[in-house]
Amino acid sequence: MNANSEGSGGNTQLPQNRVLESKDLFKGGNEILIKHEGSVYRMKITRQGKLILNK
Fold this sequence. Notes:
This protein has one helix at residues 22-26; strands at 31-36, 39-45, 51-54. The protein has 55 residues and is mostly beta strands. The radius of gyration is 17 Å and the shape is elongated.
């Protein structure tokens, strides 16, 4: 069910999620660091092309 379904009682619009391309984040590399609420996380592209996020 979404916010525009019958029975929701209004016409509330949810904000759109941003879509980021991994190539724009990694810029040719295979690993980036992401700082979130004081902790640093490591995101890697595996040899199989999957993403792994570790603290």
